[in-house]
Amino acid sequence: MFINLKVIVSTFFMIFLAELGDKTQITTFAFASRSKSSLSVFIGASSALVLTSLIAVLIGEVVGKYVPAKVMKIVAGVIFLIFGGVTLFEALKA
């Protein structure tokens, strides 16, 4: 296990861009707008993101030993398409 700056930077930008305007950010915005302690909201939201990222890394590390990267990318793409389709369906239904 070593630190790879290129991986850190690319991961940061991909996650940062993926999180912009998503439900997590909007929910955090809503909590902060109602809270008298924006620092508490920041700590809670940051902790949740760190924990979910840790879980994803640990699971990804294990799955990556048994499943080829190409298959994981295809499965991830299909999952994103399903989530997008469900979101679009709910928006059109409303």
Structure description:
The structure is a single chain. With 94 residues, the protein is mainly alpha-helical. It has a domain at 5-66. Helices cover 86% and strands 0% of the residues. The chain is built from 4 helices and no strands. The radius of gyration is 17 Å and the shape is flat.
- Overall strand count: 0
Q: In DSSP terms, counting alpha (H) and pi (I) runs of 4 or more, how many helices?
A: 4
Tell me, briefly, the overall form: flat
- Portion in beta strands: under 5%
Distance between the termini: 48 Å
- Main sheet makeup: none
Going by helix content, strand content and strand pairing, the class is mainly alpha
In short:
The chain is mostly helical and 94 residues long. Helices cover 86% and strands 0% of the residues.
Provide tags for this entry.
single chain, 94 residues, mainly alpha, 86% helix
